[in-house]
Amino acid sequence: MVIQVGGLLLAIAIAAMSSRASDWQPAWLLATLMAFAGASMALALVVRGIRVTGAFSALVLAMVLLGPAPAVLIGVVSAVVISVHPRRLPVRYTISNLFTHAVFPLVGALVAHQLAPHATSDVTFALLVFVTYAITHLLNFVLIWGYLVAAEEKSWKVGFMDVYARVLGVELATSLLVVGVAWANFRFGPGATVLAGIVVLLFQWMLRTALQAFERGEELEERNRQLAALQFGLISTTMKTLNLRDHMTARHSAAVARYAREVARELGLSTAEQELFHTAGLFHDIGKFIFPDSILLANTPLTDEQYEIVRRHPEIGAELIAEIEGYGQVAEIVRSHHERIDGRGYPDRLSADDIPLGARVLAVADVYDVITARDTYRSPVSTGDAFAELRRVAGTQLDEALVELFIDLVSNSGLAFRHSSEADFEAELSLERRVSDYAAPRPTPVARSAA
What we know:
The chain is an all-alpha fold. It contains 19 helices and two strands. It has helices spanning 2-18, 27-42, 55-65, 68-84, 91-115, 122-152, 156-188, 191-245, 247-266, 271-283, 293-296, 304-310, 313-322, 328-336, 357-372, 383-393, 400-413, 422-429, 431-438, and strands at residues 45-47, 50-52. It has a two-stranded antiparallel ribbon. A hairpin with a 2-residue loop joins strand 1 and strand 2 (50-52). The longest helix is centred in the middle third of the chain and has 55 residues, at 191-245. The chain is rod-shaped. The termini are far apart. Residues 438-451 have low confidence and may be disordered.
């Protein structure tokens, strides 16, 4: 801080001693650049911690078109605006900003005035402005990052590679804009600078407004993610509670989910649709949470009243799943997984291709796992007998084309899942990934045919 205070005072002193009356003329150009720099600082954009303004361009124009003292004055005023808007900075940062915004305008103006006698043509004048811009931009970075290296143990290598190098493209474009404005001022008079300043400020204001809207959108997206986490967490908790009552349900759901994904892959569906079928498989029986133990754990035939409760579980499950933002298609599949090809299923008595493809895939996987798994309510059958049963109900209960595809898949690839623990279900659930994927939902088209 002592070094910076000394450097600030020295820069002001040198600027004052080098000041000439002609440097301050025309006065309205000085006022324009001062207003341009101050307004640009007040409208600063802060993107990922980086302040973006047009004030640097105003300072370079002051260095070239006016002189050291006016440039230092505008730089110091800009630093004051930075330090108090939108909130007051700590003293150490204020002093650093004042030092930096006094030194680099002074150096740039002195360089420009040394080179000015050689700028005898449009080309050499443009080159003068460009060199001034490049030197002061580099010096500005060295002063700012040098403070961070000294005070906060930053690395010069990181600064040049990760900060300075990344803005060179934008700064090159900006330098060409400044060259054009300075040339227009030189050729057509100061009015060109005023017009350019107005255009830049309007553009910065519009960009700032757009950035604020974008940031509000990011905040809304984060709230959506939190809501999705809450909603998905509640559904997951419901599923886990059901698992505590009946371990078969979680194991069966994980197996059906894996079968459904493999069938979707075999059908050539997109990754998003494979994930959709997998998710629907995980939650297809969540509606069973309404079952009393007399139904859920029954080892005797159900009564008509109990069977009516059983028939409600696809609809109840779909209503639960539909509460999660972006899970509408999952809910549609869950609702329809007990529909039949012949139209005698439930709850909507859909038939044939009116049944979502995902629901028809789940129906095949559901039947196969129920009759082959060892923890279901009936004695398991062999794979061959299971294939025979699938073919027996193909065309009435199940989609015939999907039955044959499933049988070929199991026969040729050895596809088999024997999930047996809660950890298996947790791995299939992958809660964090699902929250991330569905917090900002994007509609995914669902294929309606197995062809």
